[in-house]
Amino acid sequence: MLSYRKTVSAKHLDGMNISVTFDNGTCGVFDFTPYVDYPCYRKLRDPEFFALVRAEHGTLMWPGEIDISPETVWEQARSKSSPQR
């Protein structure tokens, strides 16, 4: 059994915030701010590029095969919503 849920939709809100919906219907907001200083995410500092976020393969992705682990998205976003079981 998964210890996390797959992300099925993503929408850029503002700044580094992304509205996410998981495969169990849970919704939340994922704040990417803590991760943007990692070298692999430098391109995401460009607001127009960051806004290209999409849900694919169960997680958040950007062009150029940039992604973040689905576990991280689930753990950070789910605390901002009421999980459905």
Average of pLDDT: 91
Rg result: 12 Å
Shape: globular
Order of helices and strands: EEEHEEEH
Low-confidence stretches: none
Helix/strand-derived class? alpha+beta
Largest sheet: 3 strands, antiparallel
What's the total helix number?
A: 2
Main-sheet strand order equals 1-2-3
Task: Write a brief caption for the model.
The chain has helices spanning 47-50, 70-77, and strands at 7-14, 17-22, 27-31, 54-56, 59-62, 66-67. By secondary structure, the protein is α+β, with helices and mostly antiparallel strands.
Write up what this structure looks like:
The chain is α+β, with helices and mostly antiparallel strands and 85 residues long. The chain contains 2 helices and 6 strands, in the order E-E-E-H-E-E-E-H. A hairpin with a 2-residue loop joins strand 1 and strand 2. It is globular, with a radius of gyration of 12 Å. The two termini are 13 Å apart.
Key terms for this structure?
single chain; 85 residues; alpha+beta; three-stranded antiparallel β-sheet; 2 helices; 6 strands; 33% strand
Annotate the secondary structure layout:
Blueprint: E1 7-14, E2 17-22, E3 27-31, H1 47-50, E4 54-56, E5 59-62, E6 66-67, H2 70-77
Antiparallel strand pairs: 1-2, 2-3, 4-5, 5-6
